[in-house]
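Support reply, case 0932

Customer input (verbatim):
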Amino acid sequence: MNPNSTTAGNRRKIKKSTPFPSTRRLRSTSPSRRVSPPPSAAAIGDGGLFVEELAQFEALRISPESPNPRSFPHNVKQQCWEKAEKIKGRDPDRWRRDSLGNILFRKLAGCPGCLCHDYDHIVPYSKGGKSTLENCQVLQATVNRFKGNRTEISKNELIQRSATCLVSGREMDFLELSSYGNVRRGQDSGGCKIQ
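Our regenerated output:
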């Protein structure tokens, strides 16, 4: 058995009287890795303020943003959602239809359910598609996963892969209420208006 491995039987107990809780050992496989204690007032006053930490920070380099990121920027996602077909009687900020007619709920993004959606590259990213508004569509997540990076796929095939979801107006209200805390109707909802 490896003497460096940790098991429940041979873990060292940490004393609760440690002056700086941050000096406790981290739960890692490296026995020498520790968190530094806070600096003393003398270290700050002498001008030796975190010299080692400062050097480590300066060594970090944030890579410049790629001119064509794989995922869509937030503003493109917003505009892409606005491009999708509105559902009559529903708040367009919360409900839309994809190009196949599937109902989508704004709060359900990236999950595999029937109301869930993804922001899809019309021309796949792996085939040179850009992450721009012109190349973005809101698509039911299950359909998007089936589509993958294929371009030679018919609309009928995608419709057959759609997750069937029959949602009543009352169920839509319940989803809105549980996600947003209220129910908002679209401007074209009809019905009586109290003046």
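We compared this against your earlier run and they match. Two observations from our side: Confidence is low (pLDDT under 50) at residues 14-28. The chain is about 25% helix and 10% strand. Please reopen the case if you see a mismatch on your end.
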